[in-house]
Design brief:
This protein has 387 residues and is an alpha/beta fold. The protein has helices at 27-38, 55-58, 64-76, 96-116, 145-155, 172-178, 223-241, 267-284, 303-314, 327-337, 365-377, and strands at residues 5-8, 46-48, 121-124, 161-165, 184-191, 212-217, 245-249, 289-292. Strand 7, helix 8 (267-284) and strand 8 form a beta-alpha-beta unit. Helix 1 packs antiparallel against helix 10. The longest helix has 21 residues, at 96-116. Belongs to the histone deacetylase family. This is Acetoin utilization protein AcuC.
Length: 387
C-alpha cells in the first residue's frame, strides 16, 4: 500500500530525559528502535536523521518569551515554575531546550518529507508531546512537536490538516493551539477527563465550526468498546473533512498494563487502530501520513511492541501478531532494564468490535460517549449523529 516510508531517528532523541524514576523514560524509544531493527522492520523503510527545530520554527506555536525562558533553564538547569519547568511532571534539567527542540525537529523532518513528496508516510516515535502549551510546559511536554508540524504544514500551503490523537490523555495542547482554526480538525480519543489528567476533552469542546472533536471514554474501556468508538467517529469525519495531510499521535498508554491510566486495550487492539489510520490516510489524505509516538509508560511489554507494529503497518508490511520477539532484543531488555520481556508480538486478543451502525445501546457507557460526541460535532459537518 505504501510507496515510501521514512523513519526519522537520531540517537540524540534519547536525551529528552527527566531523570531516574520519571515515567517518560527514554529507554522506551531505544527499545522500540531496537525491536524494529531486530525484526527487520527498519529494513523496509528509509531512515533519516534530523536537526533541532530553530526558534522561528518553534515560534509557529510557542511564544518567543517562553522559548527564551526554556533556553535559560536549559543553560542553567535551574527551575522556572512560571513556565512549568521544575515540577514533578516536568523537572528542569540542563540541556532541556536542545533535547526538546531535537524532538520537534524530528517531527518537522517527517512533515517536510511527506509534504515534499519525498516520502508518503513518515514517523517520529520519539515525538507526540501533545500537552505543551504556547507559553508553558505541561504533562511531560516542553515543546509541542505535533502542533509545530501542523503549523508548518499550513505555512507551506496545506489547506486542511487532520490530527487524530489516540493517546489515553486528551490532546489538550494541540487542541488549544488550533481551537479557532477551521483549517485543522483535531480528534482526540481519551479516557474521560473526569478520571484522568489533564481534565479537559469533553464533547462540548467543539472549537471553530466543530473542528475540535473529543471522544471521552469511561475508565475500563477495552478493545471492543474503544474500536467501536473510533470507527463511529473518526472515519466519517475524515471522509467529510478531506485533509491534505493526516497527522497522528500514537500514544499507547491506553494499554491495560499502563501504570498511569485506566483503559484496557491490548497491543492487538492498538494494532487494529494503526491499520485503520493507515487506510484512512490513503482514502482521505492522498496517502500523506505523519505519525508520532506519544505517551506509553509500560516501557518493555507495551511501547516497543506497539510502535514496532506501527512502523511495520506504515511500511505496508504488517507483522504477524504471533511473531516471536528476537532473542537479541530480549537480551537487550535484560541488560537495560532487568525486566522480563514479552515472548511474542501479541497479547493473544482478537480485537473484534461491534459496529455502531448496527445499533445504539443507551445503557452502555461507551455508546453514550459516542452519541455525545456525534451530537456535538457531526451536524457542523453535515453528518447525521444518529447511528
Amino acid at each position: 500500500m505504501s510507496r515510501s516510508v521514512r523513519v526519522v531517528w537520531d540517537d540524540g532523541l534519547v536525551a529528552y530525559d527527566f531523570g531516574p524514576g520519571h515515567p517518560l523514560a527514554p529507554v522506551r524509544v531505544e527499545l522500540t528502535m531496537a525491536l524494529a531493527r531486530d525484526l527487520g522492520v527498519l529494513d523496509k523503510v528509509e531512515q533519516a536523521g534530523c536537526s533541532p527545530a530553530g526558534d522561528d520554527e518553534l515560534a509557529l506555536v510557542h511564544d518567543r518569551a517562553y522559548i527564551a525562558a526554556v533556553r535559560q533553564v536549559s543553560a542553567t538547569g535551574r527551575p522556572d515554575l512560571s513556565i512549568g519547568l521544575g515540577t514533578a511532571d516536568n523537572p528542569a534539567f540542563a540541556g532541556v531546550h536542545d533535547a526538546a527542540a531535537l524532538i520537534t525537529g524530528a517531527t518537522l523532518a517527517a512533515a517536510r518529507a511527506v509534504w515534499s513528496g519525498e516520502a508518503e508516510h513518515a514517523l517520529n516515535v520519539a515525538g507526540g508531546l501533545h500537552h505543551a502549551m504556547p507559553a508553558a510546559a505541561s504533562g511531560f511536554c516542553v515543546y509541542n512537536d505535533p502542533a509545530v508540524a501542523i503549523a508548518w504544514l499550513l505555512s507551506q500551503g496545506a489547506r486542511r490538516v487532520a490530527y487524530v490523537d489516540v493517546d489515553v490523555h486528551h490532546g489538550d495542547g494541540v487542541q488549544a493551539v488550533f481551537l479557532d482554526d477551521p483549517r485543522v480538525l483535531t480528534v482526540s480519543l481519551h479516557e474521560s477527563p473526569r478520571t484522568l489528567f489533564p481534565g479537559t476533552g469533553f464533547p462540548h469542546e467543539t472549537g471553530a465550526e466543530g473542528t475540535s472533536v473529543n471522544v471521552a471514554l469511561p475508565a475500563g474501556t477495552g478493545d471492543a468498546g474503544w474500536l467501536r468508538a473510533f470507527h463511529a467517529v473518526v472515519p466519517p469525519l475524515l471522509r467529510e473533512f478531506q485533509p491534505d495531510v493526516l497527522v497522528t499521535q500514537q500514544g499507547c498508554d491506553s494499554h491495560a498494563l499502563d501504570p498511569l491510566a485506566d483503559l484496557m486495550l491490548s497491543v492487538d487492539g492498538q494494532r487494529r487502530t494503526y491499520e485503520a489510520l493507515h487506510a484512512l490516510a490513503h482514502e482521505t489524505a492522498h496517502g500523506r501520513w505523519v505519525a508520532t509516538g506519544g505517551g506509553g509508560y509500560e516501557l518493555v511489554r507495551v511501547v516497543p511492541r506497539a510502535w514496532t507494529h506501527l512502523i511495520a503497518e506504515a511500511a505496508g508490511s504488517p507483522l504477524d501478531p504471533e511473531t516471536a520477539t528476537p532473542g537479541s532484543w530480549r537480551e537487550l531488555v535484560d541488560r537495560r532494564t532487568g525486566e522480563v520481556p514479552p515472548a511474542s508480538m501479541t497479547d493473544g486478543r482478537t480485537a473484534e468490535f461491534p459496529d455502531f451502525a448496527d445499533g445504539y445501546d443507551p445503557a452502555d457507557a461507551v455508546d453514550r460517549a459516542i452519541v455525545a460526541t456525534r451530537k456535538a460535532v457531526f451536524p457542523y459537518h453535515g453528518l447525521d449523529p444518529q447511528p
